[in-house]
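Retry 2 of 3 after timeout on previous attempt. Resubmitting structure tokens to design endpoint.
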């Protein structure tokens, strides 16, 4: 994208971007397209700098780094034949550079190329031409004619791989071009019944002087993304926009009409495979006709704007976006294959199609934080974060780093008490069992006549500790509840967290009345004598319960997912402010009404029906270990190894706390009679 100065910034080690002649308005496109700026010749200083950056030698082929440097230096440039001769004579793989420049039509004076420049310059493949006065003139004219019939067209396959191909516009059809792409790329055969070719060209943005526009897609000044202003001046592809922070010169690709929700930036149209190849396309997309991809699909959830932009990246209007379509959308970032491989790892970790759940995982949190920033701008910021910039104006985490959890130290801090109880009970169990085993082995070794396994009392400490341990794991460990409430998908988690906000809290009251009685009893002692004793016993009499709802107004903050880790344990609590309500006085009056005996036990609780005390939010299944689930969890619990599983699991998980707040709860109800418990 262009930066704030109107330039189109290139990332480091930018790959070659193919250029094409301007696309005319025609029946196949039906679009108003804009011409590209002419390429500038390579200057002497640029040539000298390029030669210094390339290794010297006589190797016939250049290294991968040297080829990348050459393509970066010649991107958007044209060269003279003499410049290429200097490069070919002094650098390793120079002949290959010369040939590539010729095939890419970068040479301004191809008529000066002779067979002495290389075997590839042989005129044997050139079309026939009328005889001229000299052989040299005949070769020059034939070479020019042959090169004039070859056009460089860039093709992007659905798996994200791209390649520049030399197409013959006089004899090749688009079917031949597809077969040529298949033969050059390998792996996949071009099948017209399964594949299609889409042409990509510029489309008019509809933005002019006086238009109200929104800034989007800036990578050098991302803090401007989402700003709204008015175009005050237009010069070629540059626009002067009056923004709240002052006037800025922006590239036309970096502004969209303020009302536009989905940004595409390029026009796409299907190519008739029977027609001849033409140069009226910027590039060609090779796509699959029937793409069936597993995983989540865009829906009308709280992040529907991301879903709309996701479908907008598909040139076919489908709910699946291939890696080729993603690379086409990001084309003006000039990503090379290495950089795009990093982007692919984050957006499509399991195939050739972008995983929508991964898009939500990467963009969901920043979109909720900055809803006015266009989603396409967040995509660009996510890409530059993945490629090394780490934090951006609207993304608060390094998307290029691993999705690590809170670590062992923080896990111990947050769950210290639970870990201590578990490891204490586990120690009692295993020490008792190992001790009994040692005694048994000792008795066998030294032929002691005591069989410890026949005495069940030796396992009594382990049995009691095991029962307490299981009760603790089932009732007191929040990870148990988290696995019960495991939810996959950021929109599903948000829906589960938001549901209690639309409910009134419920209350549950209970009283138990009782008194103590002193009773005289008799018993026979060990000597056979009868003795009398007294004991005090509790006698329960009346009990009552009451349930209802407390009308209240929710004041909870919006739930903002913590996506630092791919999976997060969310713990919730209810903060119910009853200071301005008659709820407590009504409860006390109800308790007094049911005080029918000397003593009374009272209990009350308030909660939300659909509130999950703990939830395991699976934002992304990427890198989720197979053992992180309820089956392995309960297996380790039954083996009395809960502590080790929990500290390992919770160190890999993120941690988030969310509070439901009802600060203005009120309750005005009439007192009702008792309802005995059944």
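Retry 2 succeeded. Sequence:
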């Amino acid at each position: 994208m262009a930066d704030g100065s109107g330039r189109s910034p290139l990332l480091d080690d930018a790959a070659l971007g193919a250029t094409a002649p301007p696309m005319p308005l025609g029946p196949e496109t039906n679009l108003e397209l804009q011409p590209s700026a002419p390429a500038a010749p390579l200057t002497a200083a640029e040539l000298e700098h390029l030669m210094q950056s390339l290794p010297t030698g006589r190797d016939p082929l250049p290294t991968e780094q040297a080829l990348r440097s050459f393509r970066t230096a010649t991107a958007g440039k044209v060269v003279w034949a003499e410049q290429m001769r200097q490069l070919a004579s002094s650098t390793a793989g120079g002949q290959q550079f010369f040939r590539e420049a010729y095939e890419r039509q970068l040479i301004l004076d191809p008529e000066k190329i002779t067979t002495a420049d290389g075997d590839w310059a042989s005129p044997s493949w050139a079309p026939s031409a009328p005889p001229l006065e000299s052989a040299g003139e005949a070769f020059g004219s034939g070479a020019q004619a042959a090169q004039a019939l070859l056009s460089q067209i860039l093709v992007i396959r659905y798996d994200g791989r791209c390649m520049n191909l030399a197409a013959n516009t006089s004899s090749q059809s688009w079917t031949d071009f597809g077969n040529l792409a298949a033969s050059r790329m390998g792996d996949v055969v071009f099948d017209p019944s399964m594949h299609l070719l889409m042409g990509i060209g510029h489309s008019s943005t509809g933005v002019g002087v006086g238009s109200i526009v929104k800034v989007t897609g800036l990578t050098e000044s991302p803090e401007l993304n989402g700003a709204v202003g008015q175009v005050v001046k237009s010069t070629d592809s540059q626009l002067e926009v009056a923004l709240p922070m002052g006037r800025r010169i922006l590239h036309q690709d970096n502004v969209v009409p303020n009302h536009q929700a989905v940004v595409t930036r390029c026009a796409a149209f299907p190519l008739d495979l029977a027609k001849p190849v033409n140069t009226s396309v910027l590039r060609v997309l090779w796509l699959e006709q029937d793409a069936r991809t597993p995983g989540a699909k865009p829906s009308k959830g709280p992040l529907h704007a991301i879903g709309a932009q996701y479908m907008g990246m598909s040139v076919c209007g489908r709910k699946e976006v291939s890696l080729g379509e993603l690379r086409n959308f990001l084309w003006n970032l000039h990503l090379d294959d290495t950089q795009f491989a990093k982007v692919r790892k984050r957006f499509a970790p399991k195939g050739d199609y972008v995983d929508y759940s991964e898009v939500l995982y990467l963009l969901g949190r920043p979109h909720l934080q900055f809803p006015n920033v266009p989603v396409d701008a967040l995509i660009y910021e996510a890409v530059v974060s993945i490629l090394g910039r780490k934090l951006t104006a609207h993304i608060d985490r390094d998307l290029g780093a691993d999705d690590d959890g809170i670590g062992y130290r923080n896990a111990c801090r947050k769950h210290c008490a639970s870990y201590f109880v578990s490891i204490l009970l586990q120690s009692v169990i295993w020490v008792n069992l190992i001790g009994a085993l040692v005694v048994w082995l000792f008795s066998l070794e030294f032929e002691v006549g005591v069989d410890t396994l026949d005495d069940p009392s030796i396992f009594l400490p382990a049995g009691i500790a095991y029962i307490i341990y299981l009760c603790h794991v089932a009732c007191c460990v929040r990870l148990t509840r988290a696995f019960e409430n495991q939810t996959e998908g950021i929109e599903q988690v948000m829906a589960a967290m938001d549901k209690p906000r639309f409910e009134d809290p419920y209350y549950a009251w209970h009283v138990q009345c009782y008194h103590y009685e002193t009773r005289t009893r008799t018993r026979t002692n060990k000597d056979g004598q009868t003795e009398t004793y007294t004991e005090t016993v509790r006698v329960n009499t009346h009990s009552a319960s009451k349930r209802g709802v407390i009308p209240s107004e929710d004041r909870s903050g919006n739930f903002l997912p913590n996506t630092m880790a791919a999976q997060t344990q969310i713990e919730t609590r209810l903060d119910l402010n009853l200071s301005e309500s008659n709820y407590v006085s009504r409860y006390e009056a109800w308790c007094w009404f049911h005080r029918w005996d000397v003593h009374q036990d009272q209990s009350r609780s308030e909660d939300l029906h659909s509130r999950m005390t703990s939830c395991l939010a699976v934002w992304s299944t990427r890198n989720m270990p197979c053992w992180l689930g309820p089956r392995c969890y309960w297996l380790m619990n039954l083996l009395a190894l809960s502590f080790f599983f929990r500290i390992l699991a919770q160190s890999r998980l993120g941690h988030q706390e969310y509070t439901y707040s009802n600060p203005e709860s009120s309750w005005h109800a009439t007192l009702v009679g008792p309802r005995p418990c059944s």
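Attempt log closed. Confidence is low (pLDDT under 50) at residues 1-37, 123-149, 667-678.
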